[in-house]
Amino acid sequence: MAELTLTTVNLATPDPPGLARFYHRLLGWEITAEEPHWVRLANPAGGVALSFEYDRAYVRPVWPSTPTEQQMMMHLEIRVDDLAGAAAHAAACGAAFADHQPQDDVRVCLDPDGHPFCLWLGE
């Protein structure tokens, strides 16, 4: 079998530079490539990168899902060692908090384009 390596997760957005800068502030990752319709952030640990690709027909998802509105297609899981501190940092970067918070050790956040991401308390 051929070797397969996951290298990048792409998020659709109407504003690739704006969303990339949000995640740059949130994660501290560097922007390594920027074109008018595509921006890439490199993971300094060498893992999977994030990129942001222009989508002219982008529809903001809702969370939790409803049968009549755009559902999320995926979400990011971000491990933190201080949930309250990470949540405050995310809010300062421009994240919103979902109305529904299903667990005490997780904060469901929404980036400026509505993509959900979870901050979870881990070791």
Descriptive notes:
With 123 residues, this protein is α/β, with parallel strands linked by helices. The chain folds into 2 domains: 1-57, Signal recognition particle alu RNA binding heterodimer, srp9/1 (2-Layer Sandwich), CATH 3.30.720; 59-123, 2,3-Dihydroxybiphenyl 1,2-Dioxygenase, domain 1 (Roll). It is 19% helix and 33% strand. The chain has 2 helices and 8 strands. The protein has helices spanning 16-27, 83-93, and strands at 8-13, 30-35, 38-42, 49-54, 76-80, 96-97, 106-110, 116-121. Strands 1-4-3-2 form a 4-stranded mixed beta sheet, with helices on one face. Strand 7 (106-110) and strand 8 form a beta hairpin. The longest helix is centred in the N-terminal third of the chain and has 12 residues, at 16-27.
Summarize it.
The protein has 123 residues and is of the alpha/beta class. The protein has helices spanning 16-27, 83-93, and strands at residues 8-13, 30-35, 38-42, 49-54, 76-80, 96-97, 106-110, 116-121.
What's the main sheet like? Answer: 4 strands, mixed
Mean pLDDT: 93
Helix content: 10-25%
Radius of gyration: 15 Å
In whole angstroms, the N-to-C terminal distance is 35 Å
Might you state the CATH topology name of the largest domain? 2,3-Dihydroxybiphenyl 1,2-Dioxygenase, domain 1
How many alpha or pi helices? Answer: 2
> What's the SSE pattern?
EHEEEEHEEE
Please state roughly what percent of the residues sit in beta strands, choosing from under 5%, 5-15%, 15-25%, 25-35%, 35-45% or over 45%: 25-35%
GO molecular function: dioxygenase activity
Pfam families: Glyoxalase_6 (PF18029)
Keywords: Dioxygenase, Oxidoreductase
Protein name: Catechol 2,3-dioxygenase
